[in-house]
Amino acid sequence: MIVTDNAVIKLMQDVVDRPVVVAFTYTSCYALVLHTRDRGDNHIGFTVLTEDDTNWFKSNDGLSGSSYWICNIMILFSEAESWCMMNADKDMYDMGNGERQYGWKVRAK
2: which strand partners? Predict the structure, then answer.
């Protein structure tokens, strides 16, 4: 589910310290946040956040948790990929051996 609550998006943006493009939650425990790679850079990166008592944070060792959540995390990544296919531009680059996709960029307005 796409996060639409601006207050929650602001909390997430403070945690990832980058402009948030879109965020997805499947449960109240995990969120997949798509954000720009850096300020002024339109490449899209991602961070998985965990929630506890309405506070969002990055795990100290990257994404970690019970295997119970694996299916839910896969759903978040699938939703994010679908969102990128519909709302972002492919990051195409030719390194001399034909053009390849290297991720996604924020769509120019």
Answer: 24
